[in-house]
Amino acid sequence: xxxxxxxxxxxxxxxxxxxxxxxxxxxxxxxxxxxxxxxxxxxxxxxxxxxxxxxxxxxxxxxxxxxxxxxxxxxxxxxxxxxxxxxxxxxxxxxxxxxxxxxxxxxxxxxxxxxxxxxxxxxxxxxxxxxxxxxxxxxxxxxxxxxxxxxxxxxxxxxxxxxxxxxxxxxxxxxxxxxxxxxxxxxxxxxxxxxxxxxxxxxxxxxxxxxxxxxxxxxxxxxxxxxxxxxxxxxxxxxxxxxxxx
Length: 246
Description:
elongated; mainly alpha; two-stranded antiparallel ribbon; 15 helices
């Protein structure tokens, strides 16, 4: 890099920030201020070094994933960085920037639905109100709700457990929008079991899954690399991260 900061110094600056969103925002400021070649090399280094799981790169990798999954980087910036990564075969950077399937949220999720089969269908507003409840029976029934607004409230409810969120993460009925909310959740998005469940859900967009691979430990990556149930691109990404670095 030609910039004044080296990747380790940047990783340490990010790790010193107390909040996940603050780290992603700061990294966005750094990336947008750099020329495209420097930005590409920085993202590739953060993603590659982060696969080892040690500080400070473990935290900076998560910041890179959050940044590239969001809309902080505009299209032109992404494209310029991607062109450099393509030219220099910076695969880790390319995986971070990869964009794929469009979101699949459906208006069907807004339709009234009963909390218990055979009972009166509840409006979206009623279900959102119940999502703030401390009643475990109600919460366990709401985790199958398809609407992102309901899931968002459940993710912020202190009475919801990791087991509840795993039901959402593993459900084939969960939309890409809902799965993305789980990944972004402050309480649950960094938990290993939740991440593994998300990666194995076919509704998680490939672009997001590719970014997530770098957050797994080597044992988990080895498992992904040889799982025929996963897309070829995801297996290949895991194998690349397991390859010895020169």
